Task: inverse folding
């Protein structure tokens, strides 16, 4: 399983005994005093010693077997590398006689592996410095055609200042044909583990990326305890070794890419991508050698160094722009807020007065109409005429033609008495059947002929609001509904009901408002019928428009709503007709909270001011609602409303702010790009100089 903690090898008792025995077999080399065992490498052990002639502390690496010709040639190459900064200095070589060894400088800082085990995780700055210095040294190694093949923390020594030295070139090979070289688990790339590919600098790129990952996280990349145990177990034949290495390579290829380095403080996106590329399983995805890595390192460092300049170069103008914008916004907001407060104060002061004045006129108009209809409904002779005219069964026709004539004559006389006030009269029985029509309605499309109209006689009108005293059902039915008849029976005698506007269809179509009253005698158990006086909606609308023009100011609108939340009048007639539809049945806006709130007031006239959305035209208004109560108990709410004149100013201010923001963004973008381009050019020059320096002897 994958481990998320650093691996620390435990030395058991047997291992301790082995090391004790090894101490007794210290190498004997003329001119050097061996002081103690430092550690073991792949091909030998390393001892701390003192040069007796100079007193300098050195390190002696003793080889386990006599080196072959290729090893000697590699040591000669290493002798040339020892003068390079970042590589352990080679002092003497003893390969011709026993003990087979060479003498190197001794570094008091110990190995990088010791430091990682001690500190667990290194600060980003320290890890990055070590990684960069190692790449600088390795770039020269690669330029000389040598691949180290076994880079790991234990092969990296630290001087007293903490600067790294790359050592232990026992596995080093020349580039191209020259034999495979075995590295160390979890620092070794998969193609190196398969012992099939030719030595390539990309092996070192992978290993050094693994070292950086471990310095930052304290964990070897793609570490797995089972694979580690398998690789550490004693081996037998060469085929068993190859089998273990193949399992290791397959493990690397199955593992997801390492991610912990992305959570380390200081690792930006460019650095994270550098580590990802260096640890790529795909051979071709890794940078080709340490020199290529140095260029990537320079790019990362340049990006980090440029970031404060980019931030400052963009931040300073941004702060200035923001400050100007805030000042303008504060001044503009304060001014607009003051204007809005003043405007609302005027609304609260003036609109309630206008609403009360309009309400008084509406109340007088409907009360006058209702009083006329109420007087005619209270005539005992009309009640008696209804009673005598009924057929033998409910719902039947009139008793005789004489009854029809009497109804017609009755309405003609009523029409004559109230000519010019009520234009058309209708009579309906208690079962909803219309028995008489008389009069004519003036309208914009032409006037009806004044006289008797029997075209609708005998039809059911219980579904009409003027009959049932509640609401239009918006459809005509042959038979009355039980609920309509029940509503009619609940109507109180001598209480006139103002119906909502509705469309009367005939030779000419008119929108009318009907005021109706039950026909009942004193002491009667229930009404015998309904008398309805109608006025043309055009007449009502014209009168309300005149009232609005006289009382309301510019931009103010009058809206009248009944207690069924139906709009009886709206100054915006076009919008009202559109919402009412072709039938001109006033829509019921039951979900309008401001209508409900106004009409839920007590019986006394009240005035309320509020902000709301007009359901007829969908616009926002500030206004006052004055509620009046008619003698029938109906309530009407008169709204005097007007649109917020400050809102367009807010909108224009928002557009201006957006325009300034766009200009500011363009300015900042141009400024930032110019700064970025300048830094990029300087960074390219810096990276070119750095790459040249990385290829030298240092």
Result:
């Amino acid at each position: 399983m994958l481990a998320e903690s650093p691996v620390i090898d435990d030395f058991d008792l047997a291992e301790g005994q082995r090391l004790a025995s090894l101490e007794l077999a210290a190498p004997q080399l003329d001119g050097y005093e061996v002081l103690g065992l430092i550690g073991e490498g792949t091909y030998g052990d390393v001892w701390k010693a003192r040069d007796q002639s100079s007193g300098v502390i050195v390190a002696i690496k003793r080889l386990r077997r006599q080196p072959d010709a290729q090893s000697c040639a590699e040591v000669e190459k290493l002798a040339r590398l020892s003068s390079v900064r970042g590589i352990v200095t080679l002092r003497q070589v003893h390969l011709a006689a026993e003990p087979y060894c060479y003498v190197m400088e001794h570094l008091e800082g110990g190995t990088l592996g010791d430091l990682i085990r001690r500190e667990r995780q290194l600060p980003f700055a320290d890890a990055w410095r070590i990684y960069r210095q190692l790449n600088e040294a390795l770039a020269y190694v690669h330029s000389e055609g040598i691949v180290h093949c076994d880079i790991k923390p234990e092969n990296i020594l630290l001087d007293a200042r903490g600067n790294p030295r790359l050592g232990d070139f026992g596995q080093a090979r020349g580039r191209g044909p020259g034999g495979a070289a075995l590295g160390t688990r979890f620092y070794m790339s998969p193609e190196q583990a398969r012992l099939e590919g030719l030595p390539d600098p990309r092996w070192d790129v992978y290993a050094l990326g693994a070292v950086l990952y471990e310095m930052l996280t304290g964990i070897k990349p793609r570490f797995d305890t089972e694979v580690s145990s398998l690789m550490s177990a004693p081996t037998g034949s060469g085929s068993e070794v190859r089998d273990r290495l193949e399992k290791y390579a397959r493990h690397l290829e199955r593992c997801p890419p390492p991610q912990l380095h992305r959570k380390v403080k200081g690792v930006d996106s460019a650095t994270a991508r550098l580590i990802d590329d260096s640890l790529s399983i795909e051979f071709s995805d890794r940078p080709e050698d340490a020199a290529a890595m140095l260029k990537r390192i320079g790019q990362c460092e340049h990006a980090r160094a440029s970031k404060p300049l980019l931030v400052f170069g963009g931040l300073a103008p941004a702060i200035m722009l923001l400050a100007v914008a805030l000042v303008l916004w504060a001044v503009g907001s304060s001014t607009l807020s003051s204007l809005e407060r003043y405007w609302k104060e005027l609304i609260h002061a003036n609109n309630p007065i206008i609403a009360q004045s309009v309400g008084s006129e509406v109340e007088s108009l409907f009360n006058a109409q209702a009083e006329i209809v109420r007087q005619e409904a209270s005539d005992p002779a009309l009640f008696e005429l209804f009673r005598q005219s009924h057929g033998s069964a409910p719902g039947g026709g009139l008793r005789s033609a004489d009854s029809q004539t009497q109804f017609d004559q009755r309405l003609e006389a009523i029409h004559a008495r109230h000519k010019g006030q009520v234009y058309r009269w209708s009579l309906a029985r208690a079962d909803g059947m219309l028995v008489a029509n008389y009069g004519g309605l003036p309208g914009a499309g032409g006037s009806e002929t004044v006289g008797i109209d029997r075209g609708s006689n005998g039809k059911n009108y219980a579904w009409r609001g003027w009959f049932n005293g509640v609401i239009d059902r918006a459809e005509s039915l042959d038979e009355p509904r039980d609920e309509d008849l029940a509503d009619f029976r609940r109507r109180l005698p001598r209480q006139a009901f103002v119906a909502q506007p509705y469309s009367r269809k005939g030779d000419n179509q008119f929108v009318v408002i009907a005021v109706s009253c039950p026909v009942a005698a004193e002491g009667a158990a229930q009404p015998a019928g309904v008398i309805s006086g109608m006025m043309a909606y055009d007449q009502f609308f014209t009168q309300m428009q005149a009232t609005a023009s006289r009382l309301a100011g510019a931009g103010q609108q009058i809206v009248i709503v009944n207690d069924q939340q139906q709009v009886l009048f709206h100054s915006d007639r076009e919008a009202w007709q559109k919402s009412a539809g072709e039938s001109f049945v006033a829509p019921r806006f039951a979900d309008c909270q401001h209508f409900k709130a106004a009409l839920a007031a007590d019986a006394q006239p009240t005035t309320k001011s509020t902000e709301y959305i007009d359901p007829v035209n969908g616009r926002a208004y500030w206004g006052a609602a004055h509620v009046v109560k008619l003698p029938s108990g109906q309530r009407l709410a008169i709204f005097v409303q007007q649109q917020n004149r400050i809102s367009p100013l807010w909108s224009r201010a928002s557009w201006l702010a957006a325009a300034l923001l766009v200009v500011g963004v363009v300015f900042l973008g141009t400024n930032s790009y110019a700064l970025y381009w300048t830094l990029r050019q300087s960074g390219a020059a810096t990276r070119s100089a750095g790459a040249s320096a990385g290829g030298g002897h240092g």
User: Anything to note?
Assistant: DSSP finds 18 helices and 21 strands in the chain. The longest strand covers residues 510-519.
